[in-house]
Amino acid sequence: MCQLMGMNCNVPTDICFSFDGFRRRGGETDHHADGWGIGFFEGRGCRLFIDWQASSCSPIAELVRSYPIQSTNVIAHIRKATVGRVSLSNTHPFLRELWGHYWLFAHNGDLKTLPELDGSRFKPVGDTDSEYAFCWLLERLAQRFPTEPAQAELHAALAELVPELASHGSLNFLLSNGTWLAAHCATNLHYIVRQAPFGQAHLIDKDVSVDFNALTTPKDRVALIATQPLTDNEQWTRMEAGELVIFADGVPRRL
Amino acid sequence: MCQLMGMNCNVPTDICFSFDGFRRRGGETDHHADGWGIGFFEGRGCRLFIDWQASSCSPIAELVRSYPIQSTNVIAHIRKATVGRVSLSNTHPFLRELWGHYWLFAHNGDLKTLPELDGSRFKPVGDTDSEYAFCWLLERLAQRFPTEPAQAELHAALAELVPELASHGSLNFLLSNGTWLAAHCATNLHYIVRQAPFGQAHLIDKDVSVDFNALTTPKDRVALIATQPLTDNEQWTRMEAGELVIFADGVPRRL
Lengths: 255, 255
Prior knowledge:
The structure is a homodimer. Helices cover 18% and strands 33% of the residues of chain A. By secondary structure, chain A is of the alpha+beta class. In chain A, a hairpin with a 6-residue loop joins β10 and β11. Chain A is globular. The mean pLDDT of chain A is 94. The interface between A and B is large, with 36 and 36 residues.
């Protein structure tokens, strides 16, 4: 299995503090050492860093930890290979374009069966069930909406399609189009919303604290989503099995 | 205008030496300071680093210069914005998936008119003519071949489509699907093939030399393509206007 981390906020924010803890689960505080990746939306653009090395010792992970990239939507993943060998093409998050937007997807879990992809315009490059699931989701959206629908229609379609996909196996995932971030829980997914009054946070995976009062304005709102909580002195919300939450401007809304 | 650099070889090779010279043209030895990017194919996977900062001072460029990523197909670009503002979504190379392969594209030049893209499954995310041209090319290939054709058929299709696209303006580009790399020249593009007996190379943009004898085996063959030659003591071949060359295993073949 793998670990997921996501961030959605109302102002561009860097994820250096949280990533510093998360990356240690890739080979140091946990055994997910079969590659890792992180994607940052910046405006309509998207930056994706992926590596087949363990995140705890990857030079690219060290850059991401020390280089504050400001983003409103981030998806990260560290991999423990179950389906598909260790290779760059099997490393999450996966990136595709639909309706003139980039989409990012990362998955934790195993699909026991694969949904039908014949004739799909979106095809997996690697051999993970995860990329297969992503392609299926985008293909179904593209078939339903030749051009980009209103957000409410799009979310209604996701609320229909995701349970169908989830019937194939264990499907914890994060999905973003740069405007919002969707989180679906099958077994393990937690989130926290940080907003004024801000406090201190202390990482679980490294003895480091940060005082968000010193780094934020009263209007800032940051939602952080992770397989397991990243801090030990804050109240994380555990998502329920089958729950699909859309985060926009740092606000969670259950679909 | 912008500057292009590409590499195609028969064994995975790092591009650190050449990139060290090339990156200086982004704000130091030349004025292409409006972002840069580089994409590396590794097996079927693809790693893409893009930044809107000048390549001469970007921390990501410093990582790429110092971290030897082994690849058989590389495309890099430094940007002097002409069409489209300075932003991550306008930064080359652009990445898409077709037939279960990633494709990278980078362009130097300006299209005076844009080809028809109505109903295309590939849509630009940013607002450059370059990404528009890439989407048009992939859409025409996808329409012609619902599944991946044999390589000879694919190259024949490119030989037909590229002149049509080039009729819209100035089109120097590099395109790769991870197996081969295509280079099209409108105004400025040069290449060199390095193979045994290897010699020394000295960069133009920095006083650094390398002795390839110490780094290669007799079977290695590396083709390097660039808008302007990167070294001052080797014989680069200047491509002709309208010339389309496919590089595979380091061997150039004119289409």
